[in-house]
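Feature request, filed as a ticket because there's no other form

It would be nice if the structure record came with a short human-readable summary line next to the tokens. Right now we just get the raw output. Example of a typical job, pasted below so the devs can see what we mean:
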Amino acid sequence: MKDMNRPKVICHMLTTLDGKIITEHWRNEPWGNDYDSLFEKYHKTFNAEAWILGRVSLEKDFSGGLQPEPIEPEQPIKREPFIGDPDAKSFAIAVDRHGKLGWDSNEIDGDHIVELLTEQVSDAYLNYLQKRKISYLFAGNEELDFKIALEQLANLFPIKTLMLEGGGHLNGSFLNEGMIDELSLLLIPVADGTAQTTSLFEVNKNQLKNPASLFKLKDVKQVEAGTLWMRYSIQKTKNANG
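Raw output as currently delivered:
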């Protein structure tokens, strides 16, 4: 059971047979786009109010690497949440610890952008976000605490379900902190084999590694293009020995 003061977190990912999640090595193959379409199709079945990605993925796939243009404010800006669109119903959550993302809009495909920041971000960057009516909140001084972030997302926005679709390190951070409730995994019939390529869950070396997580299979079915769609719930354990 998830905590009552945070959204349900569903990690929705597509992996190759060898657990790789980076598609650059095969996306340009004639069949590559088929799997991107599957990912989006099954993402929509959850009817979630929000999805979350890390800065690198957002720069690569959504912001086009646009550089921010910080604007020095006339007065210091307090480190408190800012709501850019109080009427928004769907959200794109951007993990941007140091305030490096640039935006030309306050939404992605109709989903209002909410930045997760640390308190080290400059006033000029906060002013930049405010001018663009991009929401933000703080979840730590120097490093992000995702538990704090999720509690704020639940309290400040109408978010009941959050789709975690990050890179291996973002996914690994959520898993390591016990913040994942369900795993939706699209296993495609592709073997990558590339050395040192990011896998589904990875924990940074500077993080305290918690015991391995045990999942319970809820459902598995074969879908299009020879893909298996597997859904798991997280099985909580009291100690490392389960």
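Something like this underneath would help us a lot:
The CA atoms of residues 188 and 227 lie 5 Å apart.
The beta strands are 8-15, 50-54, 91-95, 107-108, 111-117, 135-138, 161-164, 182-187, 214-222, 228-235.
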